[in-house]
User: What shape does this take?
Amino acid sequence: EIAPHEFTMAGEPRSVADLARFRMEVAAGMGASIFAAVFIVLLNKALFATYYFTFPVTLTGWHMVFTSATLWTACKLKVIEYKKMPLRANFYFSLLDSVTMGFQNLSLGNNSVSFYQMCKLLVAPCTVAIQRVFFGEKLPSPSVMLSLLVLLTGIGFATVTDVQLNPLGTFFGVMSTGMVCVVSILTNTMQKAHDVNSFQMLLNVAPMEGLMLLVLGPIWDQWVVGKSAYVDYQWTPEAFKAVLGTCALAVLVNGATFFLIGKTSPVSYQVMGHLKTVLVLGGGYMFFDSDASAASLFGVGLAFTGCILYAYLKDREMKRSLAAQQQSIAGEK
Assistant: This one.
């Protein structure tokens, strides 16, 4: 069994060199995440709109299988080291993550875009609440909470316009929000509890998730879309290349996700996700002449301010913690 105190956030840097390395690793992970997320969205849009490939759950299964194959190849080449996780923990996490993906698709399909975005906004505060109630985590400081409020308010102004509710869509949205919180927390805590790094955990769960989604994906897509990618889709070389491209990018997306959640915390990862939204929206307004209302522009600016403020405050907390540790060590000597 795992003691409650083992469910902690990412380990804090123990020296100035550790802090500098931590910053560089998070910055690199964030850069990889932004690059992969932007391009996989563009390729997925091309698949759905241009090549009429409307089988998202089946595609996600292929993504996980491709991720598994890539990581196993890296393991055989001694690039990463395999470390086995308990089969039971592996199975339950994989099942939960697979079901979460299904609820996210159902939420998107049964809600307005604004309500779907609102559900995404609720993930960060819900994560804070779940960590406090079920895992005994301390609440963030008032200043950090304020920065989260500024960020989420800005994202709300930028993305939430006309919220339309319906009972079924609301149920899927609530379930999706709660399950995303739990999966994010478990991605962090299981790396600590089983002493594995992000790629070792992904190497354990990706094959099982891929197998589950290969079985459930066609059934799910048949139910939702009324067609199967294996039977009904008319393949073209261009569509095949686009699918292969999304599979390659999915390796980077999955790796960066597990890395950032394990390296920082579930809440910090949500902040990074919102920063990606801000950068995509802001880039669209600046470089592609996207239509932008005054509220959207205000929201993007406010959200970006919240992201910067959150990063500054968390960095200051780590510096203070490091200074306290060094002072304590000096006192013992």
